[in-house]
Amino acid sequence: MNSPRLTHVALFVTDVGRTIAFYHAFAGVHVVHDRVDGDVRVAWLSENVEEPEFVIVVIGSAPGTANDPPRMAHFGYDVTSRAEVDAIALRAATAGCLVEPAHDAGPVVGYYCMLRDPDGNLVEFSHGQSINPRAANPSH
User: Fold this and answer.
1) DSSP letter for each residue of 55-116
2) Are 8 and 55 spatial neighbours (Cβ–Cβ below 8 Å)?
3) Mean pLDDT over residues 46-72, rounded?
4) DSSP state for residue 120 in the 8-state scheme
5) Given a cut of 50, is residue 33 above it in pLDDT?
6) Which of the four pLDDT bands, split at 50, 70 and 90, describes residue 109?
7) pLDDT at position 140, please?
8) Going from the N-terminus, what domains does the chain have, and what CATH number goes with each?
9) CA 90 → CA 55, 76, 97, 98, 102, distances in Å?
């Protein structure tokens, strides 16, 4: 098994536009993907306009408190195959830390499972979840 590669961190924010402006002004990031899921705006921010290796996913939903973090605020790791996602999910189930079993969530999210670390933080392991804006936005 190859080592998982950290590809994104997902943050819940009250105002996606304001968050984009802040990270652009202070960290020089660019919007590489922007969509609305239902009524929730989701944007991906990266230092690289082309071929990003890491993105900050900002989700337009109020953040939780320190004792009640938002359900999907997480670290996201990419693995090389669906079988690797399945193997991680099986190990996590055995260890009692599997939150969401492996499943396919479509072309943008891909095949993933969700674990909880010892402090309650969520960690996603996925395959087929490209952070390349061309793959996420075929019209670009």
Assistant:
1) EEEEEES---BTTB--TT-EEEEE-S-HHHHHHHHHHHHHHT-EEEEEEE--TTT-EEEEEE
2) yes
3) 83
4) S
5) yes
6) confident
7) 42
8) 5-136 (3.10.180.10)
9) 27, 18, 10, 8, 9
